[in-house]
Specification:
Layout: E1 4-8, H1 15-26, E2 29-32, E3 58-59, H2 72-88, E4 93-96, H3 100-107, H4 120-132, H5 134-144, H6 146-151, H7 157-168, H8 173-177, E5 189-195, H9 198-214, H10 217-226, H11 242-248, H12 254-277, E6 282-286, H13 292-303
Helix pairs in contact: 2-3, 4-5, 4-7, 5-7, 9-12, 11-12
The structure holds one RNA strand of 73 nucleotides.
Length: 305
RNA sequence: GGUCAGAUAGCUCAGUUGGUAGAGCAGAGGACUGAAAAUCCUCGUGUCGGGGGUUCGACUCCCUCUCUGACCA
């Protein structure tokens, strides 16, 4: 069975087009690894490939409605299901996406403890955090699981809450994350990271945000709001959506909101680079040095296709 | 042309009685096991507009020039 070829990199670098071209070349399919493109109806702002834009089948996009609390564990289940099915048919798999955790969840031997994030426990801990403060909550974790408390910064409330949740499930956060830096592959996969000069990437991000606005991102957001885009939804946290909601509800000017979308996208790109740079398995392709077409040839050459 | 107020980090500005500067934002780096487009951590040397002077020592005081803004002609 052929190796899975994985395309990673920061937002707006050109992953989707390259992955599609590669999948066409291989006669395979693309499995998306993007935490926001899983939501239906969030198209323009997540830079989802438009219908007909991709020639190869694209999976793991539009899997749930925006009011569903999706997660890395659910993605792991769904992505592996899709990958196993493709492989059973002998279809080559190209994984492509910018959500580092989702890629690790699907392709590495990551195990999530039993349970769901839909419990009341999370809400209870969130409330507790608001009442007693971040440091006190961290103190509570220190009592219950000192090992985990030691590896989580007290201000990182989300992580502390999750660790407490895991205590309730009888699992140690610290124990779970052991070995995260030395991954054990679940599938045989190779990784290609696309990168380019920071200035140029940022210019592309800015231009893409302007293009999204021209394509009607505001109308898309209004449509979501009409159908009840609750403040507590994961999908609401997507860059480009939360800012335009702030505009629609009068908290921001439109220009201000657009500038904020650009800034947050740039920071997001930086975090993505940080994540992928840490993974020694990634072969980096500098798109300042080679064209996208040449990058495709490079990948095909080293994959023997 | 005159008067006044400014000119300090990429931007907005602090800088106490002269002892060669520091905040916010931007930016950079990093972490990351069920919210991950989330969340969190770390990082501040710059001809203090140019030139001259006073002084042991000037971002700070004096002179001068340049530029910007306001007002008066």
């Amino acid at each position: 069975m052929k190796r899975i070829v994985t395309i990673v990199g920061p937002t707006a670098v050109g992953k989707t087009a390259l992955a599609d071209a590669l999948a066409v070349r291989l006669g395979g399919a693309v499995v998306s690894a993007d935490a926001m493109q899983v939501y239906r109806g969030m198209d323009i702002g997540t830079a989802k490939a438009a219908p007909g834009e991709c020639r190869a089948p694209l999976l793991l996009v539009d899997v749930v409605d925006p009011d569903v609390a999706y997660s890395a564990a659910l993605y792991q289940r769904d992505a592996r299901c899709a990958i196993d099915q493709l492989r059973a048919q002998g279809t080559p798999v190209v994984v492509c996406g910018g959500t580092g955790l989702y890629i690790r969840a699907a392709l590495d031997d990551m195990r999530f403890p039993a349970g769901s994030q839909e419990t009341d426990a999370r809400r209870a801990y969130d409330d507790l955090a608001r009442r007693i403060g971040a440091d006190a909550l961290h103190g509570l974790l220190r009592e219950r699981d000192p090992e985990s408390a030691a590896v989580i910064h007290p201000h990182n409330v989300k992580r502390v809450v999750r660790a407490l949740e895991m205590c309730d499930e009888g699992v140690s956060y610290a124990r779970q994350k052991e070995g995260f830096s030395t991954p054990r592959p679940y599938y045989d996969a190779s990784y290609y990271g696309l990168t380019m000069d920071r200035e140029r990437l940022y210019a592309r991000i800015d231009a893409r945000v302007d293009a999204m606005m021209e394509q009607g991102l505001l109308a898309e957001v209004e449509e979501l709001v009409v159908h009840g885009f609750g403040a507590d939804l994961t999908a609401r946290q997507a860059i480009g959506y939360k800012e335009l909601i702030d505009y629609l509800e009068g908290r921001l000017g439109l220009d201000e909101a657009v500038d904020l979308i650009k800034m947050r996208s740039r920071r997001y790109a930086k975090r993505q680079l940080s994540w992928f740079r840490r993974d020694a398995r990634v072969h980096w392709i500098d798109l300042d040095a080679v064209s996208a077409d040449a990058a495709l040839e490079l990948i095909c050459e080293s994959e023997g296709c």
